[in-house]
DNA sequence: TATGAATGAGACTTCATTCAT
DNA sequence: AATGAATGAAGTCTCATTCAT
């Protein structure tokens, strides 16, 4: 059931649809974005969308799937060589913030905000991916706690971090006083008591 | 334009509509909740809703308005007599968590998640109320910082707290290992370094 | 799941929809009849149809159901007092022909021609009714055979009669050389050897 | 406008399309069969169909045409040497039943059931062929009547036979109690009083 | 000949809203 | 205040057909 990854493929029509959809879903929400909106922005007619996706929801589902994979890729790359638990946590935080605000993964916040828009079937599929993603966080936080760098319960810490990170979507402005990097630092400082 | 407060009025038909709507909006989201759903749960027919509200959006708008007022009421009551900045912060956190999960204000998270569903006109009205509400938080956090109990920027701290608190809606279970009170304590501990 | 009978209710909006649909389905077939066609002929807008029926198919389903019940009513009435097996067969044949061509049950042929247009769920429901209807035929033919008035296998005889009767829909013209009554007589003569 | 006969040509792509279409049209009906369904079963893409047929309807039209020709061929062959009117009628009945259920002409019933799906233009063309086919039946039945073997009106007899024969499509099972040959015999016995 | 992306008309359906009763 | 039939705009989706490659 897992499709090829096309989100970053600049040539692919599916990729173009996915990128446009990500932007519109983030901006207006899934329900308020019409397939005509998406098609118009892509430069095709609405009927043509269904040549690539069986229905509107599958656009959201595939988008979510690829977004998770993309963040995992970034984490994998940046974790290479990092051994210190605190450094590894900072990578996770930075990657998640990047995913929420960054160039490519624009729309990671959709994962939380549009969860209800998926059918139960799709939810189950994405859930499996999300579980793996969250497990990575838990492993990291458990190591940190074992090393004495965390006083809170790891799962609770993850909930707080996720909430704080996702919430940045509602207020963070790239041209404001903070860079994403400094945001990541402060979030880590908050959770990791010295 | 500001209407009377009816959310807590058990007899009032408007109050019943508002409470039902709060529950459904939180569960399914505004767009996926139909006026028929609301009417059915209230026990009337959909057409009758429009004797109480001019349109669907106004239900959401009035709901948001009353929810803010309700939380402010609770804060006002519990802040009475509290002078210590740290104690006052704890009251705010506890009240916000109560609003998100508690009996009456169920649906406070709608304020963030369904923001986009309001028309610009309604947004402006609610925004004024929200600004006042957020100002209360900032004042409290500034006092705390002045007293040396906060290392982070007050506005940033508020964003983190809000994110963490709202996120609890996605995972917190009353019958789980935490009480709302302990959650409030831990959130305060996180932000307020001793 | 069985709804009230409204096909013959001249006042009822549902009844009017059903009668119009019967006529159009018979004329153009189910698939080539649009809900707009039906609504236009009824004198309402297409959206209003769905106030009465959950979807297009349910119009066909309820229509089929009521048509069967209607024919059974007619048979019941005309069978009263008839004891002779041959006479009883003639009643069945005449009623079925009436249903196919007559004033009221116009569209009985839909039962055969549009069978495939129903979803499996609807098919099952109608099938139960149809079975009862066919059982009445078999009982009649068995009695006739027991009385020595039928040489063919009863079930085979029913198949032949049904085919011949339904086929009349494709060629019979009320202003042609035959009346429906004479058609019934000849069909009975054909099957019942003296 | 008359095309070559390709239905039985195993190699020809057009022949393959026609055979697949016959099967699908009979199974689901013309309107519920998509060109994609046909193409998929043939093993090509939907666009490629239009290299062989100008449009969907022409598939049905050519199919109908060839089916008639095919039955006429069979009749021609089996009528050779038969002089007795009753024997000749039996050939016609057997051939028609073969066409409805047999290997190749699978879908002969389409001629009646999907008549409405043709445009007037196509209807006219097929009508001419059908008239010739029906004339053959009438001639045969008239001869039979002249010979005293038929009491009913020839045209009426034909209608009855056609209906009964077509209806077999809805109930006849090759592994049931009847062979097609015995079915033909019984149908002839029914019509031809000794 | 075949491909398959794209078309575009039109289908069914949903749903907030209106209004006579 | 409530009803419930009706509205009508807008939505998702289907599908025969076209055409550059």
Automatic annotation (TrEMBL), chains A, B, C, D:
One of its GO terms (molecular function) is transcription cis-regulatory region binding. Residues 11-71 form the HTH tetR-type domain. PROSITE patterns: HTH_TETR_2. Residues 34-53 bind DNA. Pfam families: TetR_C_24, TetR_N. Keywords: Coiled coil, DNA-binding. InterPro entries: Homeodomain-like_sf (IPR009057), HTH-type_TetR-like_transc_reg (IPR050109), HTH_TetR (IPR001647), KstR2_TetR_C (IPR041490), Tet_transcr_reg_TetR-rel_C_sf (IPR036271). It comes from the Bacteria. The keyword Coiled coil applies. The keyword Transport does not apply. This is AcrR family transcriptional regulator. It comes from Simiduia aestuariiviva.
């Amino acid at each position: 059931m897992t499709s090829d990854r096309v989100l970053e493929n600049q040539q692919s029509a599916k990729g173009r649809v996915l990128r446009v959809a990500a932007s519109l879903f983030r901006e207006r929400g899934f329900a308020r974005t019409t397939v005509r909106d998406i098609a118009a922005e892509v430069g095709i007619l609405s009927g043509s969308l269904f040549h690539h996706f069986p229905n509107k929801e599958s656009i959201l589902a595939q988008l979510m799937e690829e977004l998770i994979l993309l963040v995992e890729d970034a984490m994998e790359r940046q974790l290479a060589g990092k051994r210190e638990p605190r450094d590894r946590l900072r990578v996770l935080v930075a990657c998640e913030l990047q995913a929420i605000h960054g160039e490519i993964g624009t729309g990671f916040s959709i994962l939380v905000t549009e969860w209800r828009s998926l059918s139960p079937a799709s939810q189950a599929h994405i859930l499996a991916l999300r579980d793996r993603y969250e497990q990575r966080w838990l492993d990291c936080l458990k190591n940190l706690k074992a090393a004495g760098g965390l006083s809170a319960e790891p799962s609770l810490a993850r909930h707080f971090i996720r909430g704080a990170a996702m919430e940045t979507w509602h207020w963070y402005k790239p041209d404001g006083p903070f860079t994403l990097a400094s945001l990541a630092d402060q979030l880590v400082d908050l959770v990791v008591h010295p």
